[in-house]
Inverse folding.
């Protein structure tokens, strides 16, 4: 009986740990919070749109368009070669927060069916994203 319980427990741990590592980022994600602050609805809400087949990402900072590349390896997430247009916008503080979060990104975790959380290397939450 003890062996059966151990086997069942090991199977559950394996099941949950393998599911936790699988984050499907493909598609468009609205940035709903940055640095613990809820993003207020604006004319152009910030978002990230991931193309997992090509490893490319584009989106909007709330002021400017952005494009670049990303790598997702299990839970590890990183961005590279990010570029933005350079127009002034109504909320440059939001843009700075979004860009800082992207530059500090180290991992991602599925929070629910349509939500993911993005973290820095120290495990601090940087952003919450909602699937559109």
């Amino acid at each position: 009986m003890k062996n059966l319980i151990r086997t069942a427990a090991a199977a559950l741990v394996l099941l949950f740990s393998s599911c936790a590592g699988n984050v499907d980022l493909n598609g468009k994600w609205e940035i709903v919070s940055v640095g613990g602050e809820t993003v207020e609805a604006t004319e152009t809400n910030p978002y990230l749109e991931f193309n997992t087949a090509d490893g490319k990402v584009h989106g909007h900072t709330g002021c400017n368009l952005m494009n670049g590349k990303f790598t997702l390896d299990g839970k590890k997430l990183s961005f590279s070669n990010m570029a933005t247009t350079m127009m002034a916008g109504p909320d440059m503080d939001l843009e700075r927060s979004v860009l800082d979060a992207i530059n500090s990104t180290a991992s991602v975790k599925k929070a629910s069916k349509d939500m993911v959380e993005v973290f820095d290397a120290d495990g601090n939450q940087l952003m919450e994203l909602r699937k559109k």
About this structure: DSSP finds two helices and nine strands in the chain. The mean pLDDT is 87. Residues 86 and 115 are 29 Å apart (CA to CA).
